Amino acid sequence: MAADKQDSGRQGRFIAKLIAGTGVLYIVLQLIADQYGWSHRIRGLFDIAALVAFGYALWMTIKLWRATRETDGES
After folding, report:
1. Contact 30/46 with Cβ under 8 angstroms?
2. I need a surface site. Which of 36, 38, 46, 63 has the fewest CB within 10 A?
3. How far apart are CA 29 and CA 35, in angstroms?
4. Mind listing the pLDDT tens digit for each residue in 38-68?
5. Residue 5 in domain
6. How far is CA 50 from CA 44, 59, 62, in A?
C-alpha cells in the first residue's frame, strides 16, 4: 500500500513537471520564433507538439486518478 502511494506520488510529480515544462518550452519557442521571424507553419508545429504533450498529460492524470480511486475503494 505504501509503495502504491509512493508510485502515485512519483507519477503525479512527473505529470506536473511535464505540464510545467511543456508550458515553459512553448512560451520560449514562441518568443524565439517571433524574434527570428519563423513562418506560421513552424509555429503551428510547435502548437501541435504542445497540444500532444498536454493531451498526454491529461490522459496520464485521468489514468492516475482512476488508479487511485480503485485502490482507495478496496481498503
Report:
1. yes
2. 36
3. 10
4. 999 999 999 999 999 999 999 999 999 999 8
5. no
6. 10, 14, 18
For residue 21 the three cell numbers come to: 515544462
- The values of phi and psi at residue 39, to 5°, are -70, 165
* 11 contacts: CB under 8 Å, gap ≥ 6: 60, 64
Alpha-carbon span 43 to 27, nearest angstrom: 11
Q: Which domain holds residue 58?
A: 39-70
**Under 8 Å between Cβ of 45 and 29:** no
Kindly report the pTM of this predicted structure.
0.84
Give the position of cell 511535464. 18
Q: Which amino acid is at 54?
A: F
